[in-house]
Amino acid sequence: MPTPQTHEDAVAAATELAAALAPGAAARDRAGADLVPTEALDLLDASGLLGVTIPAADGGPGLGAPTLAGIARIIAAADPSIAQVPQAHFLMVDLLAVHGTPALRKTLFADVLAGRRIGNALAERGGKHAQDLRTRLVDGRLDGVKYYTTGALTSAWIGVSAVLPDGRVALAFVERDAPGVHIDTDWDVMGQRATISGTATFTSVPVTLWFDYTGVYEMPQQFGARAQLYHAGIEVGIAEGALAAAREYLVEKARPSTEAVRAGAGRAVEDPHVMYRYGRLATRVRAASALLSDAAADLDEIGLVPSSAAGAARGSLSVAAAKAFGSEVAVEAGSELFALCGTSSTAAKYDLDRFWRNARTHSVHDPVDWKYHHLAAYELGGVLPPNHGQL
Fold first, then answer.
1. What's this model's pTM, rounded to 2 decimal places?
2. Could you report the per-residue pLDDT of 262-293, keeping only the tens digit for each?
3. CATH topology for the 223-381 domain
4. Fewer CB within 10 Å, N or C, the chain?
């Protein structure tokens, strides 16, 4: 499909993709890394959605943060693992739009608009912090090991962070099938299993496409906030998916408890306690969705490169609130589903526990407690939040 040119077209494309993904979500969850979800990812790549945030000057529609959040939320309600796969892709597009050379943008954006996805290889283990990197780019050759490489296994390109001989950091782009690139399927986790975010090893991989990544997060920017906005969209999508699953089960399968029958309920949905729990949960899911929409609107107004540190802080904190609250509600919805639906809903054939497992796994992607901390520090003391990629 061609790249959607409007927000409404992008939402329609995401809705169509979600409808195609939903029937196989439970099976993909059960299979995990034993079965790479190539068919589902082919649908994603062919949806036209990969290019929606490419700037108009580079041949894309230049759609903003509300579209990005909407895509994440809609797809995640059907299958949050597939929704997470392009999260880093959209970050790479943002980084290229601001820091990529004209030649680099021309090459990679043409591929993205043709449905070729960019995976990530940014995270490492063993360092003192996220930017304590051991991967090296020396004389045009890349060597190193990366972890949590969501999307890399089935991508066309991989964005890899690496240290240059002079100590600067590069963001290099290598083709997935380049010599020396090996992506493993060693992904054995409780939730988000179909992301298959395994280990990537780069052995003397030739690199010609890269830009200086050193000071990206030292200037006022919204790269981190936009990346976190997408993550927040995944959490809200999981919550909405769990609520929809609870509604379907209650209407079609659940029987009222003995106590509810004695109280006069003929159906599970007439149980007053079920009605209370469902109403309360639905309200919290709606509140999480509203926070996500507010954060997306704030980022759209502020822009990808804010004019001031205060503007960047405003966007980051707005997203922090949406991500923190959305994570809590997603975990709650995945658990509350069983309190609503009863013992029979725990049967393995329904795989309804995937909502909780996905939410719990994804919610610890970065510390939620620190988001509340930074919100309080700003509100109570005027302290600007740190300027990095995880807030």
1. 0.96
2. 667 778 878 888 999 999 999 999 999 999 99
3. Butyryl-CoA Dehydrogenase, subunit A; domain 3 (1.20.140)
4. N
